[in-house]
Every structure is written in structure tokens, then in C-alpha cells.
């Protein structure tokens, strides 16, 4: 009889994380440490303690989630020291959770003490210096915010092109799905594709961002992966399936932010798995939604009665969708095959 899936098993899985926002992956405890230091430097700082602002009993929805970043976390993490401290903590947390390949995404931003260039180079330097890169390979995706102007979007793509040699592998479109006109970003994403960058898009998160016109426009950007894929009309779903696009599914985020009705059992995970597209479980914002990647695998296994082998297969398929090169894919498949052999003999 096969052994059940438990937390120890899902933590031990060699996992791939492809949809993790850097700032959203900072835990409240880490933010509290930054807040404490900032208060020592400036006793007049008015920001609330993160342990209160992001307490576990708070509920989130589309109206409260995005202001948490734009009006709070970005302001708190606005110095080189805070970026270094938080990025190192995020890398450590993912590695400790059994992630063996990580693509972090972040929106280039400036502050009084940093330019956008400074922000990116500081983040990349943290990745370069992380002591366990042989255990967890890490790359960066630069995000265009839906509120950006076309010129700002081009700037993000230019930054991604500039820092490709240092580990930037793609660009993303993210931000409040109720804002912006995605057609204004055609030139930016066309340029990204022209220069060989990979593309991931937040896709059909809410009904207001799921019209045939918007989704068709996004597909015209020639994305390699799509995130969330919640409110997808059948006509668009057929196109996604035909292209075999990688799908980044963020279960706890969708449930806790009320992007879907119901709980984990009501998630669209199964309907997408049946299409044959590579489905990748992701955390989105583990610092906000308090669910590690290991826990995402456990939740899905419990909700849909998946076996250990089912989860290993999920990990295996996820490798197809990474933005890393063939050497990374070979490394990951070797790790997954080793894991399969290990658990085959322990069942």
C-alpha cells in the first residue's frame, strides 16, 4: 500500500517555484525586523508594525491586497539595506522549504536612496552571493505594472535586456487587474520577445480583466507562461491548450484573496491539469498568504486525493516551463528522477 502524502514528503520534494513576487514573499517577521531597524534610525517613522498590519487574522481581497504593497511594504523596504536583508531572507526561506529552482519576480522601483538600476543590481547581487546556489538556482523576472505608462513598460524591458547576463530571464505583467489598458504594452512585450526574453502574464484574475478582447490581446504578446488563469472563456482556453502554455497556479492566494468562490476543493487546478498544459503550483505571495510551496502541494494532494507519484509527476512537468536553460532542466529532471527512485523503494 502506497504511503500517504504528508508535510514531510511535500517538503522533501524537489520543487520548482515560478510565480513568487519578491516583495510579497517577505514574511511579517522579516518585515518586523526591518521596521524595528528603521524605527531606530527614524523614531518619527509612522508606518505600522508589520505584525499588526499583516496579522494572520486579517482577510484580503482585491481591494485591500494591492494597497498593502503600494502604500506599505514598498515604503518599508525602500533602502539598500532593507532590500539586501529581505532578499536574503526570502532566498533562505525558499531553500529551507525544499525549492531547488526559483524564479523571483519584482517590479523595478526607485526611492530617495535608490534608482531602479540600483534596486535591480542590489537584488541580483544578493542572488549571486547566496551560499546555496548549487542547491537552489535562482533567476529574476522583471515586472511591468498594469498602471505603468507605455514608456515605463519599455524601461522595464530595457532593464531586463541590460541584465540578462546577470540572471534576468524574462518579463511579467502584473498589478491590480482592475487597472490599465493592456493594449498599451504591445510594443514593450514585442521588444522583449525580439530580444529573446521569456514572458509570463497575469491572466484572467478577475472578471473585469477577462474579456475576450483583453485576453486575446495578452495572447498576442506570445507569452510562455500564464498566471492564475481563473476566469478563462472556453474560446481562450482552447488557444491556451493548443499552445501548451505553462500555467502558474496559486491556490492559497486565489482562495484567501477571494479570487475564486469556495475553498481549495473548488479550485480550477483539476480542469487545467486535464488539458495537458504544464501546471506549476506556486505561492505568489507567501509572506501575505502564509502558505509555503510545500503546503501548496499538501493542500492539493489532500483536496484531490493525489498520490506521492502524482506530486512527483507535477514536479516533473513543471520543469518544462522554467525560463532557465537546458542544463538547468537536466539538473532538475535528474533530481526528480532520484526522488522518484528513493520513494519507489520506501513505499
TrEMBL record:
Keywords: Hydrolase, Metal-binding, Nucleotide metabolism, Zinc. The keyword Nucleotide-binding does not apply. It holds the Pfam family A_deaminase. The keyword Transcription does not apply. Residues 14-337 form the Adenosine deaminase domain. GO terms for biological process: adenosine catabolic process; inosine biosynthetic process; nucleotide metabolic process. GO terms for molecular function: adenosine deaminase activity; metal ion binding. It catalyses: N(6)-methyl-AMP + H2O + H(+) = IMP + methylamine. Its cofactor is Zn(2+). InterPro entries: A_deaminase_dom, Ado/ade_deaminase, Metal_Hydrolase. Belongs to the metallo-dependent hydrolases superfamily. Adenosine and AMP deaminases family. Monomer. This is Adenosine deaminase domain-containing protein. It comes from Letharia lupina. The lineage of its organism: Eukaryota, Fungi, Dikarya, Ascomycota, Pezizomycotina.
Amino acid at each position: 500500500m502506497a504511503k500517504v502524502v504528508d508535510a514531510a514528503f511535500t517538503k522533501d520534494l524537489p520543487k520548482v517555484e515560478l510565480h513568487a513576487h519578491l516583495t510579497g514573499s517577505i514574511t511579517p517577521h522579516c518585515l518586523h525586523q526591518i521596521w524595528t531597524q528603521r524605527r531606530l534610525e527614524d523614531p518619527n517613522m509612522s508606518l505600522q508594525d508589520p505584525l499588526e498590519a499583516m496579522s494572520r487574522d486579517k482577510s484580503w481581497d482585491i481591494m485591500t491586497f494591492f494597497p498593502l504593497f503600494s502604500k506599505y511594504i514598498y515604503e518599508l523596504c525602500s533602502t539598500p539595506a532593507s532590500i539586501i536583508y529581505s532578499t536574503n531572507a526570502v532566498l533562505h526561506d525558499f531553500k529551507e522549504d525544499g525549492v531547488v529552482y526559483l524564479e523571483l519576480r519584482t517590479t523595478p522601483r526607485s526611492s530617495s536612496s535608490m534608482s531602479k538600476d540600483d534596486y535591480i543590481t542590489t537584488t541580483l547581487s544578493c542572488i549571486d552571493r547566496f551560499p546555496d546556489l548549487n542547491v537552489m538556482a535562482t533567476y529574476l523576472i522583471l515586472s511591468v505594472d498594469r498602471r505603468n505608462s507605455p514608456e515605463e513598460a519599455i524601461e522595464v524591458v530595457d532593464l531586463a535586456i541590460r541584465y540578462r547576463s546577470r540572471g534576468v530571464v524574462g518579463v511579467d505583467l502584473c498589478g491590480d487587474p482592475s487597472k490599465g489598458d493592456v493594449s498599451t504594452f504591445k510594443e514593450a512585450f514585442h521588444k522583449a520577445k525580439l530580444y529573446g526574453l521569456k514572458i509570463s502574464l497575469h491572466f484572467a484574475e478577475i472578471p473585469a480583466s477577462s474579456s475576450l478582447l483583453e485576453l486575446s490581446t495578452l495572447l498576442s504578446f506570445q507569452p510562455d507562461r500564464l498566471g492564475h488563469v481563473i476566469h478563462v472563456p472556453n474560446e481562450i482556453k482552447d488557444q491556451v491548450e493548443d499552445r501548451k502554455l505553462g500555467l502558474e497556479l496559486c491556490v492559497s492566494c486565489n482562495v484567501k484573496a477571494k479570487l475564486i468562490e469556495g475553498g481549495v476543493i473548488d479550485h480550477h487546478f483539476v480542469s487545467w491539469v486535464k488539458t495537458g498544459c504544464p501546471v506549476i503550483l506556486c505561492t505568489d505571495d507567501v509572506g501575505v498568504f502564509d502558505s509555503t510551496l510545500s503546503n501548496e502541494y499538501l493542500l492539493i494532494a489532500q483536496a484531490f486525493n493525489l498520490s506521492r507519484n502524482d506530486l512527483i509527476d507535477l514536479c516533473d512537468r513543471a520543469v518544462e516551463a522554467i525560463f532557465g536553460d537546458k542544463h538547468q532542466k537536466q539538473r532538475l529532471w535528474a533530481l526528480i528522477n532520484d526522488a522518484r527512485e528513493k520513494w519507489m523503494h520506501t513505499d
